[in-house]
Amino acid sequence: MKNVVLQKSRLKMFLRSLDKTRLIAPVNRGGKTRFEVIEDINKAHLDLDDYTASPKGALFPQNETLFSFCSRDGKLDIAPAQDAPQTVVFGIRPCDAKSFVILDPLFTGQVEDPYYRRRRDATLLIGHACKAPTNRCFCPSLGGSPGGTEGLDVLLTDIGDDYFVEIVSDRGRALLKCAAALFGEVAESHASKKEKAGRKSLDSIRRAVDLKLMHEKLPKVFQSSIWQTMGNKCIGCGICTYNCPTCHCFDIQDEGRPNQGRRVRVWDACMYPEFTLHASGENPRKDRSARIRNRIMHKFTYYPLAMGHIGCVGCGRCIELCPVNEDIIEILNTVRAAHD
Amino acid sequence: MDATRSLREIAREVLSRDDIACLIGYEQGSYGFRVSPCVLTSPDEAERLIFSPLCVHNLTNYLTLENIGPLAAQDLSKGRIAIVVKGCDSRALAVLLAENGIARDRLFVIGVCSPGVVDLKKLERRFPGAVACGRVELQNGAFFITCEGATTSVPAGELLSAKCTRCKTRTPVIYDVLVGEPDQPKADDYADVAAQEATSMKERLSKWRAELSRCIRCYACRNVCPLCYCSDCTLDRLRPQFIRRTVDFQENLMFHVTRAFHLAGRCIDCGECERVCPQDIPLMELNRKLAKDVKELFEYEAGRDPAAKPLFATFRPEDPDEGIL
Question: Of A8, A165, A268, A313, which is the most buried if we count CB atoms within 10 A?
């Protein structure tokens, strides 16, 4: 099966054809889009005109029960985490799909995380090319593009009355084969429309940052006063980390009573003082300037050296949502200027 | 003279004095309509200052945030902190001073009579995609918005921040120097609270279940609040753990109700919590309801009278409630 086209009016039929598979797709909650498990396809927000939500939680949920326990009459019962059901995540932006490629070596590399691994293996990712990148998007600086396919199994591009359906992986091909009758053949006009749409989106991205040798430049400005300037205005909240598709730090806690409860994994944020607080009361990252520096260096120095990927996809959510205009593009440009 | 020019002039003078360590104000942000808080230390930097309806932040938050470079305790010996405040921001200052959160003699307050700031989310939806720095001015009931080379006028009501539409204290209640034309404070009728009071408890629960289920517990609302400044916050505590780290409706409800009650009689309606919420949770509805209750029960409004004691440090012998006295 080669690339195909899908009439827009048939999109719901295609998604319904996945009935044996759990579907995660964007839904509108009070004006905000979130990726949630879809029971009724009519409740999904398939217009995909909103870029707020990252699908990170589909593979790395904010709350995750690792196991639950119950002790009765001296007997301890431990119930393991539930198996990951076969899942399709629909409507992912190319930048967010790339974030899973960045997270993979961390969770499935040297030390394998069985919870992530199970979910990753059971999940297919259907992407949606960006029609209208925003003023905070800079994915080309990170090697991405509004029509990028890295990390996806299938990519849909809006070409007017149809979607151009690009088959990226064998798993994606197998998925589409099950509903082959719904798709049409690609004509030359479809291909040229797709190319035109991709170029238009790419050309509309106006923000950029030069990341050449950034992983080497950052350690050289470790002691610079630029971090103090950024730390001064940072309010130390978790907006940048929690909305980031590649931030992956977590905490593990036991919740419940001593004889009954569960062990949970929850997102954590390096911008919180508690993140590095030692039991002794000592905190090696004493202030917000040290925390911002760590966040930037983790993404652009430590992570690339350890995992082979820059920990950023250029989605710009941190830029858009920061309450005090901490702008990662500006920060990196300042680093470059301070070094050069 | 416009507010920006006046501010720069004041800043140049103030920053050349020996008794001032730094000035907290606003400067042009990195793109589009964004403005950034800044900390200036030298008179040469005065030209960076700006003031416009894009100056949405309540800068008094920086007086209580831990470890702010030049504001850190060890540096305060160098002198006072100059700070730019709008009417609402100055009310936060009044509460901080009344609670001994900061001492008056450590501050030099530059008050600005602000005719109102924009709702940034509405503005950016209306003018999406601006990368070059935009400008906004408020004149004769309309915002004049300059964006990517073109200027458009929009009736003020369409883009004004909700807190500004109900504001009764445009003129700062505390200042050492004032920019702009002062006016008389007016009485707050809490008309905005009536709508939620008209709904049943059941409706309210279902509304807040939907709203608070979205909360991701980034704590931006807490961190941006100038009056949420406990050095040891119950949310960060593990032993005892009052609020679990699991993010769900129950725990989120506990968090937001706790926070709202800690702000009862203290919230000054700067709306920062609601502005910064990445999930657009209408947090000010909770705060406004409690402010109205406090007004009705105790005839008290936080931060409107700089000479007033904190609500919970006051009592009246003729109080009709038996209470704990």
Answer: A313
